[in-house]
Amino acid sequence: MSGNLSLDVLLSKEVCRLLDSFAAIIKTQVIFYSSSGEILKRGRDWSVSNFCALIQQKYFSLETCQKLDREMQSRARECGRLCSYKCHAGLTEIIAPIQVLGEIAGFVGMGQFRTDDAIPDFISGDEEMKRFYLELPCFSAQEVECLKDMLNTLIEYIVNKELISFSENLRYRKIIYYINKHITEKLTLESAAKYLNISQSGLEHFLHGKYNTSFKRLVIRLRLKKAEELWRQNPDAPVGEVAAAVGINDPHYFSRLYRKERGISPKEFKNKL
Predict the structure, then answer these.
(1) Is the torsion defined by CA of 121, 124, 125, 129 positive or negative?
(2) Which fold has domain 3-165?
(3) Cβ atoms of 146 and 75 closer than 8 Å
(4) Whole-angstrom distance, CA of residue 159 vs CA of residue 177
(5) Quick check: 111 and 39 in contact, CB under 8 A?
(6) Is 170-272 CATH 1.10.10.60?
(7) Angle (deg, nearest 10), helices 189-196 and 170-181
(8) Strand 10-11 and strand 29-34: pairing?
(9) pLDDT of residue 245
(10) Which of these, 147, 120, 233, 216, lies nearest to 175 by C-alpha position?
């Protein structure tokens, strides 16, 4: 699947309300980022804390903080799960990736808060900074783990309820994703409908009405497309081997199907390569 899924995230009113409520409960920042790191929404539209604003004026630049944010987003993207870390000012932050159809659609960040009352050494002589530091929320190690669980649950709810939408139809992309993921297996309308949590008739009606196709024809199209991708990588691959790799165990049936759909034989396609 192409990476452009993650570029056009639109937040529903329900997502904004959830973020606002979450931020109000924990009395700290909850931020929704795009996959490229752009801030899309702050919980309760809060700005940075007095402590962080002053830190960026006196000790660390905004660019330094943003660079760390991007680094931690990259780490969360690579490992595919929530990460917690200490920022330059000694505060704890959490970043969690939002995955939709196997792609990173964005991130939810939570911070910044204290995990103890110890004053960072670099502000030990700055009374104003110490006062602002102690005003920040403080959570125990156990409470931080609870916050992580809450954040994961919130993200699962957002994804499962499809509360984020994209420039392309998410349901159709889910169908494509499902077929490609199981392309070597027996694909049925029943299994796809169960995955999408809709009725079989509802799935067929959706494909006919929106895309003028059926589930069966969509499966054929994607299997032939995958076979051609495999031949582009290895033009010498036998028809039977490629057919099996796309879920068709009878090479003769595959060849007949290919000629019917493409107007040429698999051998002719390979010769063109």
Answers:
(1) positive
(2) Beta-Lactamase (3.30.450)
(3) no
(4) 15
(5) no
(6) yes
(7) 130
(8) unpaired
(9) 96
(10) 216
